[in-house]
Backbone:
């Protein structure tokens, strides 16, 4: 999906996402909550600072902002996305709860070594496969030595997930 396509879907994303996962019997917030519980568990297991600086790579409309704040209330969250419309909606909804930044090009998302860790939830399937390594290298440069990157991606072997992804357009 191109940047412009993400912008076109920003206003309807929450409703579309809810419709596409209705079959599993959970609300979208359930998924954002457990991903951030998992992220905090990784932060703790890696002995990373609970008051550190972390990145939501491909934050979209900001679904992870509130659950992140519940799990790591003293941490700083930087949210980046290629969709300026999604970022505007996230910033309007969450205000100063995160630092929202537009990712306009292939340069690294954040200056080298400034992050304690990062997460990307349901992002990489939107990135052409031949660009995955480049994006991962950019993220690695932004994370301090010893930091971590958590990538949550759709399970291509789960028929419910496949259905949800196919019908999300």
Residues:
């Amino acid at each position: 999906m191109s940047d412009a396509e993400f912008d076109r879907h920003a206003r309807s994303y929450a409703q579309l996402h809810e419709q596409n996962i209705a079959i599993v019997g959970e609300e979208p917030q359930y998924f954002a909550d457990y991903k951030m519980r998992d992220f905090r568990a990784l932060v703790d297991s890696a002995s990373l600072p609970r008051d550190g600086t972390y990145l939501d790579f491909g934050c979209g409309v900001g679904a992870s902002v509130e659950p992140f704040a519940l799990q790591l209330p003293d941490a700083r969250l930087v949210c980046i996305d290629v969709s300026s419309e999604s970022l505007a909606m996230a910033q309007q909804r969450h205000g100063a709860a995160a630092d929202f930044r537009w990712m306009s090009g292939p340069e690294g998302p954040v200056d080298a070594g400034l992050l304690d860790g990062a997460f990307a939830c349901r992002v990489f399937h939107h990135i052409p496969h031949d660009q995955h390594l480049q994006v991962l290298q950019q993220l690695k440069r932004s994370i301090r030595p010893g930091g971590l990157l958590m990538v949550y991606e759709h399970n291509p072997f789960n028929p419910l997930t496949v259905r949800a992804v196919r019908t999300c357009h």
